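Try this one yourself first.
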C-alpha cells in the first residue's frame, strides 16, 4: 500500500462551470452560516449576504425571530436592499417601484395595490429561506427541503469532539464579539478547507502557533483524532502570540478542555476554534472559483469585552495564522491550472484524512 494518496484534479479548483455546480449542490443545498445573531440584534436590523449565488436578506421580525429571504423584489426583480447592512423600522421598500414588505416578508404596500384586490400578499411576498440559530449565529438553507440541521451541522461537532456537550460548554451563544476581521482570499474555497484540516505545513509557516501548540510541529492536526485537543506547551500561559496569559477563562469548560486547542470543520464553510478563554469562528463566502471571503470572529466573555482589556495578543496569534494560511492557499491557486497538476497532487500519511473531504466533494457534485 502506497504512503501517498491522490488529491482532486486541478480543474476542481479552476473550472467556473464546476464552481457553478458547487453553488447549486453544496452552498444552496446545505446549511450555511451567515451572520452573528448580534449583527441583527433588533427587529428591522438586517444584513445581506452571498449564499449559493444568491443575495440573502437576513433580519428579525417584530417578535425577535430571525428571518431570511431572497433579496429580490417580487415585482420586477430589483435588488431589494443594496446595502450590506442597515436597519428599517417596519418594512423593506423597493427603490424601483416602491413595493414594500414587512419583516415577515409579506407584501404590505405598493402603488395602486388597493385596486388589485386579487393579489395574494403572502404569495407575492418575499421568497423565504429556512433559518436556524445556533451557537449565537444565524444559519440559512436555500433548499426547498433542508437537510437535518442536527445531523449535518451539530453532527459535525459530535463527529469531531465525541459529543455535543463538548462544544456547548463554551457557551458560544452568550459570548461577545471582541474583534472581527474580513479577509479577501484569492483562492478556491476547497484549498482553504484542506489547509485548515492539516498541520503538515505548521512547522514550516506557523512558528508562533507551534510555539503555543508544540505537537503541531510534528505535522499531525488535532482534527485527525476524535475528541483530541492539542495541548499548550509547558511554558505557555495562554493562547496568545507570545504565549503570555490570556483573559478570563470561560467558566463552563471542564478540566479536559483547559490548556487545549480544539478545531472543528463544519462543511461547507465554517471553522470553529476552541481555547479556554475565547472562541474563534471562521465563515467562508465563496464568491468565485478563485476568490473566497473569510469573516473571522474572536469571541470572549461579555465582561471581558466590556472591560476594555487589551485583546490584541490573542487576536494577533490567529490573525497571523490566518494570513500565513491564506498566503499559502493563494500560492497554490495558480498551480491548480498547471498541466503538471492536471491529474492532481498527493497526500502524505498525516494528510490522509483530507481524502475523505475530497470524496465528500466529489459525491456532492457527481
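Now uncover the answer:
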Amino acid at each position: 500500500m502506497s504512503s501517498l494518496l491522490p488529491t482532486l484534479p486541478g480543474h476542481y479548483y479552476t473550472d467556473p462551470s464546476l464552481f457553478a455546480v458547487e453553488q447549486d449542490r453544496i452552498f444552496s443545498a446545505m446549511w450555511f452560516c451567515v451572520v452573528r445573531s448580534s449583527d441583527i440584534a433588533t427587529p428591522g436590523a438586517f444584513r445581506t449576504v452571498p449564499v449559493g449565488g444568491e443575495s440573502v436578506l437576513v433580519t428579525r421580525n417584530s417578535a425577535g425571530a430571525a428571518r431570511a429571504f431572497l433579496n429580490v423584489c417580487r415585482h420586477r426583480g430589483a435588488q431589494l436592499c443594496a446595502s450590506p447592512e442597515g436597519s428599517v423600522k417596519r418594512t423593506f421598500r423597493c427603490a424601483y417601484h416602491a413595493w414594500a414588505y414587512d419583516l415577515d416578508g409579506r407584501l404590505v404596500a405598493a402603488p395602486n395595490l388597493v385596486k388589485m384586490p386579487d393579489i395574494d400578499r403572502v404569495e407575492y411576498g418575499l421568497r423565504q429561506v429556512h433559518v436556524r440559530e445556533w451557537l449565537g449565529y444565524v444559519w440559512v438553507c436555500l433548499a426547498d427541503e433542508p437537510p437535518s440541521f442536527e445531523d449535518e451541522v451539530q453532527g459535525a461537532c459530535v463527529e469531531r469532539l465525541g459529543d455535543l456537550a463538548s462544544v456547548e460548554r463554551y457557551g458560544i451563544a452568550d459570548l461577545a464579539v471582541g474583534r472581527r476581521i474580513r479577509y479577501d482570499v484569492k483562492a478556491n474555497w476547497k484549498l482553504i478547507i484542506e489547509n485548515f484540516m492539516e498541520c503538515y505545513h505548521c512547522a514550516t509557516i506557523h512558528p508562533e502557533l507551534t510555539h503555543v501548540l508544540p505537537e503541531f510541529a510534528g505535522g499531525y492536526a488535532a482534527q485527525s483524532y476524535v475528541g483530541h485537543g492539542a495541548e499548550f506547551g509547558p511554558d505557555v500561559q495562554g493562547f496568545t502570540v507570545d504565549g503570555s496569559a490570556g483573559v478570563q477563562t470561560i467558566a463552563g469548560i471542564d478540566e479536559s478542555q483547559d490548556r487545549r486547542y480544539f478545531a472543528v470543520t463544519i462543511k461547507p464553510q465554517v471553522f470553529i476554534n476552541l481555547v479556554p478563554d475565547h472562541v474563534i469562528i471562521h465563515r467562508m463566502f465563496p464568491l468565485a472559483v478563485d476568490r473566497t471571503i473569510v469573516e473571522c470572529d474572536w469571541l470572549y466573555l461579555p465582561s471581558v469585552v466590556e472591560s476594555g482589556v487589551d485583546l490584541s495578543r490573542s487576536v494577533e496569534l490567529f490573525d497571523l495564522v490566518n494570513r500565513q494560511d491564506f498566503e499559502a492557499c493563494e500560492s497554490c491557486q495558480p498551480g491548480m491550472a498547471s498541466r503538471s497538476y492536471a491529474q492532481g497532487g498527493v497526500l502524505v500519511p498525516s494528510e490522509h484524512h483530507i481524502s475523505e473531504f475530497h470524496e465528500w466533494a466529489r459525491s456532492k457534485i457527481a
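Discussion: The first strand starts at residue 5 and ends at 6. The mean pLDDT is 96.
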